[in-house]
Specification:
This protein is of the alpha/beta class and about 290 residues long. It has two domains: about 180 residues, P-loop containing nucleotide triphosphate hydrolases (Rossmann fold); about 40 residues, no CATH class. The protein is about 40% helix and about 20% strand. It has eleven helices and ten strands. Strand 4 and strand 5 form a beta hairpin. It is globular, with a radius of gyration of 21 Å. The structure holds adenosine-5'-triphosphate. The site of adenosine-5'-triphosphate has 12 residues, from strand 2 and helix 1. It is an enzyme of class 7 (translocase).
Length: about 290
């Protein structure tokens, strides 16, 4: 089931001195089973938008439909716990939410909270650990003795154990080194490709958008500026530049070569294709 967003508005602190319209009428449909990037400059409304998806924020105007829930202003969400099970939201630095004394207990917390027996919850923990690239040797360890990247895996396991349909990731690679970020992105892609989870990824990293996402939504000052598949998006670098986002290195290289007179079609979006294109033109001049 796709996620339908209709005229979504969010005003913080309405009717006060601090009133601020963060979302100004977002309309879009987000495809099921795909990885959709949500990008935009800082303050454009990305986090505000995704917090509506699991009921953390309620719209002040418009509505959204997600996983069988219809969410609109002043309408109490009937089973918010179930919505939060179906839509797993991973915040920036999720490791700060770990609190139990062992990793096993931390990951088992969610299902136990939903009434699963201790025994079944611990079985689920063992099932979910390899999904985040950890093994059973971690179970008895304290979450606090792990590295930042490992802690983040434990926090993500605590969300995956509830088998969400939609996984919303708000800057999940913030603060990780390039290798850690790559591993984290590979983990999410596997969840999408192997388990068919719909993934929404808030990111500032255009290389991640290019390498791992299917679709992209661009927010600008609380409005949806563009929505397209990733290929179309990177064929139009002006869409990024016009709202102050720097295109990834490959696109900048392509633009620099185009400016030097090389004839490079817009749909050339890999290093290999770019190399072939240049090679052909250099050979033609020899
Ligand atoms: N709790 C709040 N109260 C008032 N204004 C807020 C609140 N949270 C966010 N805002 C404002 O709403 C706007 C959108 O914020 P939001 O956090 O959604 O942006 P963002 O695109 O996620 O930014 P970033 O990339 O920096 O995380 C910003 O102007 C922000 O200052």
């Amino acid at each position: 089931m796709s996620i339908e967003i209709n005229g979504l508005e969010h005003v913080y602190s309405p009717n006060t001195l601090f009133e601020h319209a963060a979302l100004k009428g977002i309309d879009c449909s987000i495809a099921e089973g795909k990885v959709t990037a949500i990008i935009g400059q800082t303050g454009s409304g990305k986090s505000t938008l995704v917090q509506h998806l699991n009921g953390l924020l309620v719209p002040t105007g418009g509505s959204l439909d997600i996983c069988g829930f219809h969410i609109q202003p002043l309408l109490k969400i009937k089973d918010i716990k179930e919505l939060r099970r179906k839509v797993g939201l991973v915040f920036q630095f999720p490791e700060y939410q770990l609190f139990e004394e062992t990793i096993e207990k931390d990951i088992a917390f969610g299902p136990k909270n939903f009434g699963t027996s201790e025994e079944d919850a611990l079985k689920l923990v063992r099932k979910v650990l390899p999904m985040v690239g950890l093994d059973e040797s971690y179970l008895d360890r304290s979450p606090f003795e792990l590295s930042g990247g490992q802690k983040r895996r434990v926090a993500i396991a605590g969300i995956l154990i509830l088998d969400p349909e939609v996984l919303v990731l708000d800057e999940p690679t913030a603060g990780l080194d390039p290798q850690g970020a790559k591993e984290m992105m590979t983990l999410f892609m596997n969840l999408n490709r192997k388990l068919n989870k719909t993934v929404l990824l808030v990111t500032h990293d255009m290389n991640h958008v290019m390498n791992y996402c299917d679709d992209v939504m661009v927010l600008d000052h609380g409005k949806l500026k563009h929505k397209s598949d990733v290929q179309t998006f990177f064929e139009h670098p002006d869409w990024m530049i016009n709202i102050g986002i720097e295109p990834p290195a490959l696109i900048r290289l392509k633009m620099a070569l185009q400016a030097k007179g090389f004839d490079i079609p817009d749909d050339v979006l890999t290093l290999e294709a770019l190399g072939n294109c240049i090679e052909k033109q250099v050979k033609a001049h020899e």
